[in-house]
Amino acid sequence: MHHNPIAIEQLSHTYPDGTQALSYIDLSIAATERVALVGANGSGKSTLLLHLNGILIPQTGTVTVGEYPMEPQNLKQIRNFVGLVFQNPDDQLFMPTVWEDITFGPMNQGVQGEELAHRCHHCLYAVGLDPQHYGNRNTSNLSGGEKQRVAIAGVLAMRPQILVFDEPTARLDPRSRRQLIHLLKGLPMTQLIATHDLDLALELCNRTVVLSHGRVVRDGPTEQILSDRPFLEEHHLELPLSYSRPYCLLEHAPVSQRVAH
Fold first, then answer.
1. In a domain, 136, yes or no
2. CA of 254: how far to CAs of 168, 233, 241, 260, in Å?
3. CATH number reported for the structural domain that contains residue 38 in this entry
4. Going residue by residue through the chain (261 aa), what tens digit of pLDDT does each one get?
5. Quick check: is 170 in a domain?
């Protein structure tokens, strides 16, 4: 595990229609950190994520993943290093059965035989799905929460060192959301989670990075950032629901403020 598995310097990206999605991003993420990436629609979150496993190559600036600069000749190694879980699992699940979908990535890495079966079993168990029950299920017949778990299992089967999530709770019901939070808490690898779900960020991530108009406007402790109502409103965000009532604000306030009350 690299000390700083993601290092981004002066990254900018402009789409063909002239929209500048990212402007001079500097960001470093340390090994085993779980970092929330938040911002209003159009802030550049998804564009940034697509630079982390080579779907987009830097136009300006640099992205280094582990020891690999983001360059075409390094894409195979980078995509083994970084697992990207899309917002919509239907964009990620494309094989007829759960088993085939989860084994697709490792097979392309050259994994075969007992090792392949072991990985598939292990990763299904890791996301809370019984291989005996789910292995032969048709992926199109799964619920939203089940699809999300299978998508994560397929990424885990490739044994990445970094997991990158784009709006992981966007399509989940409350129970599936809670199960996903519990799952992510138990995964030991570095995680970068782009989300509008600020309560998820508050519960999972000690650090939050805020994007606005393609720039990093704040980077620091999650509780400090997500309790700053004026700052959030300035950047078209709202307080987490758990901060929206006075008693909740007091519960999460520093000890000195609680005593004052």
1. no
2. 30, 22, 18, 10
3. 3.40.50.300
4. 556 689 999 999 999 999 999 999 999 999 999 999 999 999 999 999 999 999 999 999 999 998 899 999 999 999 989 999 988 888 889 899 999 999 998 998 889 999 999 988 988 988 888 888 898 999 989 988 889 889 999 999 999 999 999 998 887 888 888 888 988 998 888 999 999 999 999 999 999 999 999 999 999 999 999 999 999 999 999 999 887 665 444 455 554 444 444
5. yes
What share of residues in the chain are helix, strand, coil (percent, to 5)?
A: 45, 25, 35
Q: Is residue 32 part of a domain?
A: yes
Residue 126 lies in a domain: no
In total, how many domains does the chain have? Answer: 1
Q: Cβ contacts of residue 148 below 8 Å, gap of 6+?
A: 85, 89, 168, 171, 172, 176, 180
Amino acid at the residue 106: P
pTM of the predicted protein model? 0.85
Among 211, 212, 250, 208, residue whose Cα is nearest residue 226: 208
How far, in Å, CA of 34 to CA of 189, rounded? 8
Boundaries of domain holding 56: 6-89+161-260
How far is Cα of residue 151 from the mean position of the Cα atoms in its chain? 12
